[in-house]
Amino acid sequence: MGWVHRRRDHGGVIFVDLRDRVGLAQVVFNPEVNPEIHGEAHRIRSEYVLALKGTVRARPPDMENPSMKTGDVEVMVDELEILNESRTPPFVLDTDAEISENLRLKYRYLDLRRQAIQQNLILRSRAAAETRNYLQKNGFVEIETPFLTKSTPEGARDYLVPSRVNPGMFFALPQSPQIFKQLLMVSGFDKYYQIVKCFRDEDLRADRQPEFTQIDIEMSFVSEDDIISINEGLMAHIFQTVLGKELRLPFPRITYNEAIERYGKDNPDTRFTLELRDLTDILENSDFMVFSEIVGRGGVIKAIKVEDGKRLSRKDLDDLNNYVMTYGAKGISWARVKEKDWTSPIFKFLSPTEITEINKKMEAEEGDVIFIVADTPSIVHDTLGNLRIHLAEKLNLIDPSVFAFTWITEFPMFDYSDREKRYIATHHPFTSPMEEDLALLETDPANVRARAYDLVLNGSEIGGGSIRIHKQDVQSLIFKALGLTDEEARTKFGFLLDALEYGTPPHGGIAFGFDRIIMLMTGVESIRDVIAFPKTQRATCLLTDAPSAVSIEQLMELSLKIV
């Protein structure tokens, strides 16, 4: 039984590729074998649902199809029943032709019949099963946490759910099970996990969805090394069992500051080099005022080097000015390295000593191209961090078969919000600061480091976590640093603060973006291709037309009024 993938009429004999979830089989309707069934087969069209009986036989010599797993055999049909007919689909399902994503999402039940999408979801299912297998074998307990919970708007925007039985009151859908998994550690479940839906009302892009799936993990009586080790083992297990890929353990670790200094990003793609080099000390007193004035204002000058730069034309180099402006830079300087000098628009403004020192710092050789950006540290890092990826893609420097994992550690505890005029938690307010930085909480919060860590794969953050705060006095200090009064902290997190007074063990954990991991494992460009029924970038469902208006009666039941 299955669907008609394609039908071919070869001068009387009709061939049909019949499809189900596990693959294709060629079935044959021969007028000389069964004229009545052959006559019925003339009705068959694409995506009809068939049931048939027949004889499996070897295909005639020279008629095998090596591209099909069943390509050595076919089924000579004796009996046929058309279980259901189909309208002509709005797009062709049996080719890899590009199809409008909006059309695919509107008819998602048809799109999901396509082999590529089905294989993505089957791989996802296997990865989820292997995640459970690994964690169960390592002593973890799977525990479900609530979807209807309290709004604690300290991260992304919550999805709110009005309560009918408590008029004017609201639940929130969880952005993560963070508080509940910490409470489970208080409760004595020292190894918890869950593959769980989470919800964030945020602007979307290719790797974001309003509802997404996490592998959520928490452990008691552990250090960062313990958590990193168990989760490296999890990644190695998933990639080995699902993809047959052996991962080399342990994964590299670099600090947040090192990642920014070397790659311009805290989620670096380490499959290629093009690392940033600091030229500030060489050019801070340069006669070229463009550079020296920027350094005088507290700016920095950094560069990346492309080897064998002849692959970049003069037009390519000039076009990069427009590219870097999208990241706030006012422009970019470039130089082709020759044996004794440069070909560069800024060559005449720099001294021979400066050029020699730059070549030495960049380890540049003849034929290389150096790209220099001078601006504030954030603009320089953002610009060169994105430029190195742009150039690597343009010059095919990335091996798509490589999976490069990197741990990023020692994140800053706080970011300063210019909009709110206060410090906000870089990760979340339950992250423990480094013990040696506790004294800085009241005097210099910008330099407090968190016991936090992210796992980055091929330039995408796939997981993040931290050692948590397990003492009430430290948690109160963090809330104070975040500008929360005792009353505000008690209102938002009172139940957690109470729990911290009842013998909370040291604990920590991590949450992985499961959808994003599957996206990278399958090599697709959009996270929507690994989710069965995803939302668009406007957070709508084209299949069901959600979100939608509701009746006045429903609003009245919820004590709501649309303004």
Explained architecture:
- The protein is globular and about 90 Å long.
- The protein is an alpha+beta fold.
- It contains 16 helices and 22 strands.
- The model has no long low-confidence stretch (mean pLDDT 94).
In short:
The protein has about 575 residues and is α+β, with helices and mostly antiparallel strands. It is built from 16 helices and 22 strands. The strands form five sheets. An eight-stranded mixed sheet has the order 6-9-10-22-21-20-17-11, with helices on both faces.
List strands and helices in order, with pairings.
Elements: E1 2-10, E2 13-20, E3 23-29, H1 35-41, E4 49-58, E5 73-84, H2 101-106, H3 108-111, H4 115-137, E6 141-142, E7 159-162, E8 170-173, H5 178-186, E9 191-199, E10 211-220, H6 224-243, E11 253-255, H7 256-263, E12 277-278, H8 280-283, H9 289-296, E13 300-306, H10 314-325, E14 333-337, E15 342-343, H11 352-362, E16 369-375, H12 377-394, E17 405-409, E18 414-417, E19 422-425, E20 452-457, E21 460-467, H13 472-481, H14 486-499, E22 507-513, H15 514-522, H16 552-557
Parallel strand pairs: 3-5, 6-9, 11-17
Antiparallel strand pairs: 1-2, 1-4, 2-3, 4-5, 7-8, 9-10, 10-22, 12-13, 13-16, 14-15, 14-16, 17-20, 18-19, 20-21, 21-22
Helix pairs in contact: 4-6, 4-15, 13-14
